[in-house]
Design goal:
The complex is a heterotrimer. Chain A folds into two domains: about 80 residues, Orthogonal Bundle (Arc Repressor Mutant, subunit A), CATH 1.10.10; about 45 residues, no CATH class. By secondary structure, chain A is mostly helical. Chain A is about 50% helix and about 5% strand. In chain A, strand 1 and strand 2 form a beta hairpin. By secondary structure, chain B is α/β, with parallel strands linked by helices. Chain B has two domains: about 210 residues, 3-Layer(aba) Sandwich (Rossmann fold), CATH 3.40.50; about 50 residues. Helices cover about 30% and strands about 30% of the residues of chain B. Chain B contains nine helices and 14 strands. Chain B starts with a strand and ends in a 6-residue tail after the last helix. Helix content of chain C is about 35%, strand content about 35%. In chain C, a hairpin with a 5-residue loop joins strand 9 and strand 10. The radius of gyration of chain C is 33 Å and the shape is elongated. Classes of the chains: A mainly alpha, B alpha/beta, C alpha+beta. Chains in contact: A-B, B-C. At the A-B interface, helix 2, helix 3 and helix 4 of A face helix 6, helix 7, helix 8 and strand 14 of B.
Chain lengths: ~140, ~290, ~625
């Protein structure tokens, strides 16, 4: 998971939010399978070189939202049934993202068709919805670089 | 409780005002990073925290006690990593540990040995013969072995190669995760501390320009790219610097509000380093 | 306390090698007797080398360690290691300095050890060069050694901080240091020139202790309040140091002032009183108490008013002479520490408020003696080198410089002014074959030449000269068991006439009226013999006591005699008044020792002064039955 989770210092979102949304994204895209283990706070913090409290906060929110679950004595895992975001919440978030994308496209001077086409390509690249794709394996031992 | 509470601290060196009414606080459990150029007054502040320098005016409280008057008692729960390693060159890591073990109420000798091994530092080699990175690692290990409630680090990665730097931050993060230590550090490695610190202060010319949560700072700073000929009124956004380029101008603002988003204005967030440079760099307006 | 021990242990461990080196050096003195060096065969060569080496090692280490142990660590920013740990400031300071002191002093002891183990018991005297060590025991010597090591260590520490801080305070330090050293030196010179050596020695030890304490306090202040800031530490060090040292030097000055302000009342023991032929002034000297280091001043004291003038301390002065009317006194004043030049000083006693004045008469080649003053006080004469010298007191004009019978062995020399113009010189000598002679020369001071020469054959010793200088009292012992007493009148030139007595003569003197008295002791009996002006016996009186002394004649017809059974007990004398007509003895009192002698004018002050057993001085006028204390002992 560490390999696909990157904190962008130039991203205006707080780090815990970036982690939270990345995890949600990975879970939603199926890159993180349900029931798969998630690195400990300690390890993830070290890998990302961030304050463990930050990771802890992200994990807490994800646990509260039901995305992650803690198994007593065994660590944190992706919950068996990741909850769906309420459709209203989902719709709101999607719209926000879309506005940003559309704004960018306008600034660049791209037309509607091109914008839509690019969106399709991006969707494909994520491999979203394809459960048959092999699951990413990752360990919880410290990566070395 | 604030483990570090500095209130209206002023320090004078001869005629020079090195620190000018600086006030900051480090709540328990937080990681505070103090940034500033060389000569901005960081070292003096650290010396005041350690009770090595007497405040000209104002107060410095450490773990609730006066840093100057109660230094020896308060340092029992504080781990210190100074900018320059100052352990006696003739002592090796083992002897240093033995010397320090008697000074702290709870000494984690096993943890010290484990850290040295993780770092790969030999415990029988005299301190003076270790490399710069190894010296820093030994000093950090000594500081952590005292199981301190507060860690004070003065530029702990100065002069270290990337591997050594990473190792230091790794240890710090592990300690944060395991014991929730409160940390006050100064650093020039802005990229390195960006993720670890949750509070940040910026010192310039003895004055504290910024003292807030990292998230808040990054939330309010933006770099705006404005096309030429645009007569935007940016006063409300608290512009910090402005550079005119061929295609237009680039303005750094310190009070960004989402409601100012415009089609023609390209807004990008800034890294800590970029924010720092805009505040204290040559092109800073204030 | 634990923190102090930890720092101390660390400091010692860091310099382990020094201890080893010191232990090795300790073997050098042991090898000395076997080395082919000039002094190596002397009996105490080993002990001497051991002590010298031990002192050198300890002092050098004190200086080196002192200047680095704090100052260098501060300058090289290594003191932060201690200060960023829970170690109290005083423990850091004390641990470092105690470590350095232990190393320096301990190394010295290690160097001394092999020699001590081999049985040498070194004599600590002679290694301090200050005259302090006479009679010093090894405990005191060791304490002084340790104190000196500490002083050097602390001074080097202060110097190290001052130099390394590179701050302008160094100028203040140099200024203050020079000033205080100068003040201390001036004070020490004052004590030295007054020969108050005991006080100086005590003050030096006190000053040493004060110096050590001042440096220690200053250093402590620097470390505990300056901490890792070298410049600030220097400022604290300097302020504390100069304030304390300044107080110490002031105290030293105050002490010296107090010592030298001793008055006759402060004498706990009277050394002696020199009375004048007339008048109420006397010269009195004695010893002050232990607080003044047994300083021995001498004064001219006006016994009627109590006013006293300090004229010096032994051996700063000698040979005081009064004029015949008692209105002037002259004496020889040495340069500092009893050196040349010797100047004649005078004091006019009849002028109230007069101060001693140096006259132009001085000597720079040999010490003069036998100082005499002309009756009117205008001229002085003495014997200097091999010459009889007479000078005008007012302008130093040389009146006479006659060689003293060169090439001949003369036993007794005396000088007398017969009058202002004539100076008489008396000398006796023994020739071969148990013969001898008395030679008398008269010098005319207006011409500077001998005006008369007389020779009196006979193996006599000169016992006394009459006040007018014309008659001499002679005594000789050719025959054991018998003594010859004779009087010669130099005016007539006739051979001496006298008598022979049994036993020993323990006192012999002219009386003012021209007669003479002698004290005889034979077979544990004491007698006073009264002789007429031609030396014939007039009366013999028995006297009590095993040992007898004359006094003077306090009233006409009475002579003071003092006696004691045991001469070894100080002041256990009793004085009586002897009636020269009847021989009756009237007791004056126990514990009284007379200060006069028979040839003083009757009733002059010298004849009436007595030193009491308890140390006081008292004047007794038997004629008026009056007794007055002049000086109380040790008040």
């Amino acid at each position: 998971m560490s390999r696909s989770l990157r904190i962008d210092p130039a991203d205006p979102r707080p780090i815990w939010r970036q982690i939270e949304e990345s995890v949600r994204h990975l879970v939603a895209s199926g890159a993180l399978a349900a029931g798969a283990p998630v690195p400990s706070v300690r390890d993830l913090a070290r890998d990302l070189q961030v304050n463990p409290a930050t990771v802890s906060k992200a994990y807490q929110r994800l646990t509260d939202a039901g995305v992650l679950a803690v198994k007593r004595g065994e660590g944190t895992y992706v919950s068996e049934t990741p909850p769906d975001l309420s459709s209203r919440e989902r719709g709101k978030r999607l719209l926000q993202g879309a506005v940003r994308y559309a704004s960018l496209a306008v600034t660049l001077g791209a037309g509607r068709e091109e914008t839509r086409g690019t969106l399709d390509d991006a969707w494909s690249s994520l491999g979203a919805g394809n459960q048959e794709e092999e699951e990413e394996e990752w360990t919880s031992s410290p990566s070395t670089s | 409780m604030d483990l570090v509470a500095v209130d209206e601290l002023s320090v004078r060196y001869g005629r020079r005002l090195v620190l000018d009414r600086v006030s900051l606080a480090v709540p328990e459990g937080s990681v505070y990073v103090l940034l500033g150029r060389n000569g901005a007054g960081k070292s003096s502040l650290v010396r005041c925290l350690l009770g090595e320098q007497r405040p000209g005016s104002g107060s410095v409280r450490l773990l609730g006690g006066d840093a100057w008057r109660e230094r020896a008692a308060l340092l029992r729960e504080v781990g210190v990593v100074p900018e320059e390693p100052d352990a006696p060159p003739a002592m090796n890591a083992r002897e240093l540990a033995r010397f320090c073990s008697g000074l702290y109420p709870s000494w984690d000798g096993a943890g010290f040995a484990a850290r040295l091994e993780r770092f790969g530092v030999p415990s029988g080699v005299p301190f003076g013969q270790l490399s710069k990175g190894q010296k820093g690692q030994v000093t950090l290990s000594l500081a952590l072995a005292g199981s301190p409630r507060l860690l004070i680090l003065d530029d702990p990665t100065l002069g270290l190669d990337p591997v050594a730097r990473r190792a230091v931050f790794d240890e710090l993060i592990v300690d944060l995760a395991d014991r929730g230590t409160t940390v006050f550090l100064t650093s020039h490695d802005l990229a390195g501390v960006e993720g670890i610190a949750d509070r940040v202060g910026v010192l310039r010319g003895g004055r504290l320009l910024v003292d807030e949560e990292m998230d808040t700072l990054k939330q309010r700073f933006r770099r705006l790219r404005l096309p030429a000929g645009n007569g935007h009124d940016l006063e409300a956004l608290a512009p910090v610097s402005s550079v005119t380029r061929a295609w237009g101008s680039e303005v750094v603002v310190g009070a960004w509000d989402e409601s100012f988003a415009r089609e023609e204005v390209e807004v990008s967030a800034m890294t800590l380093e970029e924010i720092f440079l805009s505040l204290v760099g040559q092109e800073g307006l204030r | 306390m634990r923190a102090f021990a930890m720092v101390l242990r660390r400091e010692l461990a860091e310099r382990r090698l020094l201890v080893l080196a010191a232990a090795l050096l300790g073997l050098v003195p042991v090898a000395v007797p076997f080395l082919p060096l000039g002094f190596s065969q002397a009996p105490d060569a080993r002990a001497g080398t051991a002590i010298a080496l031990a002192l050198i090692v300890s002092y050098v280490l004190a200086l080196v360690l002192g200047s680095t142990v704090v100052a260098r660590d501060l300058a090289e920013r290594r003191l932060g290691f201690y200060f960023s740990r829970p170690l109290p400031g005083w423990a850091i300071w004390a641990g470092k300095l105690a470590g350095a002191a232990l190393l320096a002093f301990g190394s010295g002891v290690l160097v001394l050890l092999p020699s001590l183990l081999l049985g040498d018991r070194p004599d600590p005297s002679g290694y301090w060069g200050q005259g302090l060590s006479r009679g010093m025991d090894s405990g005191l010597a060791s304490a002084l050694w340790l104190l000196t090591v500490l002083a050097l260590l602390l001074a080097a520490n202060a110097a190290g901080v001052m130099v390394r801080s590179r701050s302008p305070w160094l100028l203040l330090d140099l200024l203050a240091g020079t000033l205080l050293a100068g003040l201390a030196g001036v004070t020490a010179a004052r004590l030295l020139s007054a020969w108050a050596l005991g006080a100086l020695a005590m003050a030096q030890v006190g000053l040493l202790v004060a110096v050590v304490l001042s440096f220690a306090a200053a250093s402590g202040s620097q470390v505990t309040r300056g901490r890792t800031d070298l410049r600030r530490g220097h400022r604290l060090l300097s302020l504390t140091l100069w304030a304390l040292l300044g107080l110490s030097v002031l105290a030293f000055g105050g002490y010296a002032q107090w010592v030298l302000a001793a008055a006759p009342e402060d004498l706990v023991e009277l050394g002696g009183v020199l009375p004048p032929p007339a008048g109420d002034w006397v010269a009195v000297g004695g010893t002050t108490g232990p607080a003044r280091g047994k300083y021995k001043p001498t004064f001219l004291l006006d016994t009627s008013s109590g006013r006293s003038i300090w004229i010096g301390a032994e051996p700063a002065w000698e040979d005081l002479a009064f004029s015949r009317d008692g209105r002037r006194a002259v004496w020889m004043q040495m340069g500092s520490r009893g050196t040349f030049p010797v100047t004649i000083h005078r004091l006019d006693l009849d002028r109230p408020g007069a101060e001693p004045v140096a006259t132009p008469v001085g000597f720079s080649e040999s010490f003069p003696h036998s100082l005499v003053l002309s009756p009117d006080g205008s001229r002085v004469a003495c014997i200097s080198g091999e010459r009889i010298v007479a000078q005008e007191l007012r302008n130093g004009k040389l009146l006479l410089a006659a060689p003293v019978l060169p090439g001949e062995a003369w036993e007794q020399n005396r000088l007398r002014f017969l009058d202002s113009r004539t100076l008489r010189f008396y000398a006796t000598r023994l020739l071969r074959g148990a013969r001898g002679e008395l030679r008398v020369f008269d010098f005319d001071l207006d011409t500077g030449r001998t005006s008369r020469e007389m020779r009196l054959p006979g193996s006599y010793a000169l016992a006394g000269i009459s006040p007018d200088g014309q008659r001499v009292l002679l005594v000789s012992r050719n025959d054991p068991g018998r003594t010859e007493i004779a009087i010669a009148d130099l005016r007539t030139g006739e051979p001496p006439a006298g008598m022979s007595v049994d036993g020993r003569v323990s006192g012999l003197s002219f009386l003012p009226d021209g007669r003479a008295v002698a004290l005889l002791r034979s077979r544990s009996r004491s007698e006073l013999l009264l002789l007429d002006s031609r030396g014939a016996a007039l009366k013999r009186f028995a006297l009590p006591g095993a040992y007898v002394r004359f006094g003077g004649q306090p009233a006409p017809g009475l002579l003071v005699v003092a006696s004691t059974q045991d001469r070894s007990v100080e002041k256990a004398w009793r004085s009586d008044l002897l009636d020269l007509e009847s021989g009756a003895l009237r007791p004056l009192g126990e514990g009284l020792f007379p200060q006069g002698w028979p040839n003083l004018p009757v009733g002059s002050i010298g004849t009436q002064l007595f030193v009491r057993k308890n140390g006081g001085l008292v004047r007794i006028d038997p004629g008026a039955s009056r007794q007055r204390a002049i000086l109380h002992p040790g008040s």
